[in-house]
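Students often ask why we bother predicting the structure of a whole assembly rather than each chain alone. The short answer is interfaces. A chain on its own may look different once its partners are present, and contacts between molecules only exist in the joint model. In this exercise we take two input lines together and write out one structure for the complete complex. Read the inputs first and try to guess which parts will touch.
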Amino acid sequence: MKISTLSRRSGVSIPTIKYYLRDGLLPHGLATATNQADYSEEHLRRLRLIRTLVEVRRLPVSAVKEILGAITEEGDLHQIFGIVIDARPATRHQEQARQEQAQGEARGVTDARRLITEMGWEVSPSTTAIQTLGEVLDALSAMDSHINWQSLLPYAQLTDRISELDVQQMNGVSGLLELAERAVLVSVLLEPALLALRRLAQEDKSARLFSGSRDEGRET
Amino acid sequence: MKISTLSRRSGVSIPTIKYYLRDGLLPHGLATATNQADYSEEHLRRLRLIRTLVEVRRLPVSAVKEILGAITEEGDLHQIFGIVIDARPATRHQEQARQEQAQGEARGVTDARRLITEMGWEVSPSTTAIQTLGEVLDALSAMDSHINWQSLLPYAQLTDRISELDVQQMNGVSGLLELAERAVLVSVLLEPALLALRRLAQEDKSARLFSGSRDEGRET
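Now the answer. The structure tokens for the assembled complex follow.
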């Protein structure tokens, strides 16, 4: 197909496609004339994935290159998924530095690791999400909220079931480019949807339980 | 207590407390001398709530005033919860404008309302979360993802159970100021924790299912 067809079918403008070609993100098409090239369905799939990574995951071009490289060279979906959810296994150097720091690790991060052990989750010890979870646990503790890692266990069980739904969304998708695209959609684009669903469910529960509660010392 | 004690116990600096006093967010203490005032436990509770709303929910001072007003005047936890999760019931004027627009409403928002009906959730028709959910559904559709509002129903059922856990976190808390503070912590501060838990669970599922999958046409 011509670049104009590629642009129409991918929803990416011609100047942006040309930028990706110059930058090496998209391989050049087969030259058919001095200023014309032929693009394949493979180009279209790759371009759609680039678009998803840039627009949905909001990754910088350098990270998009890394993911495309992992797809081409490794062909390992777990690794691709890992890059998408920012769960890269640490290098040996980073791992050593982490172990040296572990003694002085923030309380919240230690608690986050306890929760992971309790759940039996197999994750890289340097996954970004552990830090995030640790920061929230520290903030909850600083606010005397009495919400700790144990209180989060029932939440962890429900999110575990959510992740099973996530993995089911990969069913029926074949080809690593398509699987990578689906992984981005499911793991990243569904995040605001899940938070929105939770707020709607909260509003519903709040309406049923708290509506018209004008008394200070409400019985619970 | 003196302003210095109030500052130490709340974790809010004296200049910031003075700013809240000038701005009317915090009522003045009982004057004990020309330049000294006595503050009560009630001042401390109110100040802690202000701190949570500003630091955790990142609300502008005007919105904090609105919530504090709702607590003082209405004493209605549902309304307070609604402000916290940005689920304010529309005014009659907004509601009219919404109904006039409804014909031309984006496809995603219509689908979001279908999901809400299917779930039997009682929510205000102008809740922000409906728009958010609609935008995600539109984006999923624009990307030919084959993920639609029906695919999100199992997610909605799990988030419904998460919201039941959320409501349980309000147990044992009495006093509207404390309940409002807890509502902010649970609904807002837990958001990054839930997303982090989902990413950890995804990484675990991905390790179990996809690790070492080097074949393009993986069977699912």
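Check your guess against this: Chain A has two domains: 1-85+169-206, 94-163.
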